[in-house]
Design a protein that fits this description.
single chain, alpha+beta, 5-stranded mixed sheet, 3 helices, 5 strands
Length: about 90
C-alpha cells in the first residue's frame, strides 16, 4: 500500500494550474500528528516555501505552484490550504 500524501485544497490546485511558476501566494500546511514543527519548517524551506510563521500542527508561508506540488507529495503533510478569512456575523 502506498503511503498517504497530503491533500491540496481545490482552490490551491486551481491556482497551480492557472498561475505561472513564479507567481506566489500564502498557504497553510497542516502537519500529520507525529511531525515536529521545527523539522517540518526546515523541510518546507527546502521544498521552496518562504515560512512566515508556525504553530502547533501547522506552518504558514508563501509558495509558488511548483512548491505546492512538491509539498503536497510529502507523506508527513496532512493538507495544503489557502488561508482562512474571517467573515462578519453581523448583517450590514
Amino acid at each position: 500500500m502506498e503511503p498517504r500524501r497530503g491533500v491540496v485544497a481545490p482552490e490551491l490546485e486551481r491556482w497551480c494550474r492557472e498561475a505561472g511558476d513564479g507567481d506566489r501566494r500564502t498557504a497553510v500546511v497542516r502537519l500529520r500528528g507525529t511531525v515536529e514543527v521545527g523539522q517540518a519548517v526546515e523541510w518546507l524551506v527546502a521544498l521552496g516555501m518562504e515560512v512566515t510563521s508556525s504553530g502547533p500542527g501547522s506552518v504558514i508561508g508563501t509558495v509558488t505552484p511548483p512548491a505546492v506540488r512538491r509539498i503536497g507529495q510529502q507523506t508527513w503533510v496532512l493538507a495544503v490550504e489557502g488561508p482562512r478569512t474571517l467573515r462578519s456575523l453581523q448583517r450590514g
